[in-house]
Amino acid sequence: MISMKKVTFQILCSSVLLLSLAMTSCRQSKFLVATPKLDVDPLIAHIDSTIRPQDDFFQYANGKWFKQNPIPASEPSNGIFQIIEDTVNAQVLHICKLAATETNPEGSNKQKIGDFYFSGMDSITRNQKGISDLKEYLNQIDNIKDKDEVFDKSAFVNSVSNSTFFNFGVAQDDKNSSKYQVYITQGGLTMPDRNYYTDNDTKAEEIRNKFVCHVEKVFAIMGYEEKEAVLLASKLMELETNMARLSRKREDTRDPFANYNKMSVDSLKRLTPHINWNVYMKGVGLQQVDSVVVGQPEYLAGLDKLVNQMSLADLKSYMKFRFFEGLDTFLDDRTYDESFDFYNKTLRGVTEQRPRWKRVVSLVNGYLGDLIGQVYVDEYLPKGTKDKLIEIGNAIRNEFAERIKGLDWMSDATKEKALVKLNAVMMKMCSPDKWKDLSALNIDHSSYVRNAMNANKWFNAYNIHKYGKPVDRTEWDMEPQTYNAYYNPSNNEIVIPGCNIIVPGFEKKMADDAILYAIIGGTIGHEITHGFDDQGCQYDAQGNLKNWWTKEDKTKFDEQTKKIVNQFDNYFVSDSLHINGSLTQGENIADLGGIIMAYEAFKKTPQFKHNEMIDGLNPSQRFFLGYAMEWMVNMRPEALMTQVKSNEHAPAKWRVLAPLSNMPEFYQTFGVKQGDKMWRSDKDRVKIW
Q1: Closest Cα to residue 280, out of 376, 358, 169, 116?
Q2: Given the DSSP bridges, would you call strands 291-294 and 176-186 parallel, antiparallel or unpaired?
Q3: 286 φ/ψ sector (left φ>0, alpha ψ -120 to 50, else beta)
Q4: pTM for this model (two decimals)
Q5: Overall average pLDDT of the 17-22 stretch
């Protein structure tokens, strides 16, 4: 349940602007004319005064920035996420460069950072090697003698590169959060979602054809003759299409009870008699497993039949492709160019590659984030970051408690349990108190792709070795330099990395509370609300999947969530593509709850109480403009389509328009009236928390 601020990362360039609104309506808001200071307020500098805030607040608040900052050719989008990512990447680059130029002790954190970065930047060596570092592993797959061995090598591929056939891992047991459990879910598809294989529209057909061409070229890079590569690509597409048809729709995987099917290993073997689980589990490093949780049993049963029907040769070619594809980013330029052509050009509309340093820094940060994070916290986060995050977090939680107490649709019995859960929410702010120990991870400067394989193997082993051990509730799954956040229902925790304190235009100081409460408060409120969305509400205070609602209260809650599903189902991003309200409902509930809690908490600050004017804007105006800036993201049509088809988060524009159109306070602040495009009748406004 990740907030996905980056879903997607960016910050701000500003110029002096006189804030004014085009006088297109007698409903124009008289209070929206202000004269900014010479040190320009970004809230004012981004406003497109040709747009009425009552009609499209997202474009009104961000439109001028979009006009002045077109999407770079190397990016699928541009906006606040990209700016903040660039800011953080520049800082991480400095850390990497310093580590690469120093003489560091073997096995030290700096040695690992420096060598991983060096191996990625050494394009001469990578191009000389081509795919040679992978050939021994491709040969091992070629030498598989039977289908039992397929699953031995499948375990290997899963651990060092990519999932094959299904997803397999260890996580907290949804119904017993004090223990770790083995989970097996549908997976193994190369394109973003099942509907890329099953949709019948012209665009989906075009993408499928390009995917098959891409697969042909990948097999050619591996050394196959053209005729054979064409045949192998056709076979792989057939297999993955059959796997996609077996898979549940993404929105159907959101029901935690329906996707929790605990069974003994013997039952798993009876369900899938042609998959050798003894061989597979030994391959991933597991022994004496007594039970597993299967997300989608019908998928595994269907996959078992596919495996039995397919030839050994076709299974091997699929595994070779998945292995190779998971590591193509770390290989020579020819291989990377082919990967870029499909995954970036076709799926996201990006026409130009990012500079090599950006690609390398992003990957090094992704793999060695805990090592880099230790330097980042000390050298780059503003003083007082943790204290400010805790202050806002406590204010949001207190407001949520008051909202629960005042609900007219929830019974006292359920309110009591909801408050127990709320009070139990663990708030992890800024950075972990304990970092992961990566001392056993081997990194050197000789091979970029082998470094990636070693890191994948380390993280896979780290996950697998949790099985049978006590749950570590102090663990973080994000680094402080990651501009994102998440709620973990099994831990009943929110995690807010430190770099969330960064606000465009306020790099040298903290922004005022209106902006901080809108952006950070909205994020904290969003994550806490995840504990009470359509999924999170089914977990208790200890993180166990357990119904703690009365039947009547759950019915009333579901009635409100249906309204938010309907609201988003009616948002069209193009003439033929609308947002999937069922798929995105959890994030939409969290967005609405988050901004409501943030606003109510902000009302208790001195800035709001004293009606402090800043650059001609009153506190409420600054708050709502700040919230719009949090989602200042402009996407390419291809990237927008990919997100709508495969992501649980609605596109940024509707993450602003939808929740604000349900808030009377927004209507009052910007004079929204019936007939305005942002207006919704009172009966249609969604009121949950």
Answers
A1: 169
A2: parallel
A3: beta
A4: 0.90
A5: 27
